[in-house]
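User: My collaborator sent over this chain with a note saying "see what the structure looks like." That's all I know about it. Can you take a look?
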Amino acid sequence: MQKTLTKKEYQKYVDEKSTNSKLLRNVIRAFVVGGLICIVGQFITNVLKMKGLGQDETASLTSLLMILIGALLTGLNVYDDIGRFAGAGSIVPITGFANSIVSPAMEFKSEGYIMGVGAKMFVIAGPVLVYGISASVIAGIIHFMLG
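Assistant: Without extra context I'll predict from the sequence alone. Here is the result:
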């Protein structure tokens, strides 16, 4: 027969089994790593502007290079370590988006390029793309109708 725990006993049990959250440490790590990722992006932007590229070209190339860096670090299994250390600081920037596409592709590559990499690549990022594109189309239509 099972013993029924009181609320106090259950709370004591949960407290014993739960790990202590290091909230301040986690926030600082996320802020620092997210900031460092943004500094790298700003450095790339500054270099491209110094080379004489226009605003649109600079923005596009910076995004492309940051995605490439995130995908490369994921492929080298470095981004996972960054993620474990930084938490949300590594998933918010554009490099985190690249990581969310490359990780499932790498995981399922043994199933082949079509049914593995191609089919599983957008498992995590797919909903973000669908809703992001849908929202931009709706915003575009509203902008067109109003302006």
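A starting point for your reply to your collaborator: The mean pLDDT is 86.
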